[in-house]
Amino acid sequence: QLVLLRGEAPFESGAQIESGGRATGVVTSAGSGPAGALGLGYVKTRALGEDAGASLSTGGAALQIVEAVRR
Prior knowledge:
The protein is mainly β. It has strands at about 1-5, 15-20, 20-35, 35-45, 55-60, 60-70. A six-stranded antiparallel barrel has the order 1-4-3-2-5-6.
């Protein structure tokens, strides 16, 4: 699932997204600006479903799913 991400710190395109120590996705694009660190990435659907409460991170920095991108 394509999602909009916000990070507590800048993160890079191509970075692995983890949840509970397991790979759950990848960052496809990222940038930083006045709104903070934002990016797009693909995550496994379980990150949006039953595991939605689990914390996501990349490179040790916490990530938050802002919204799922619907096509």
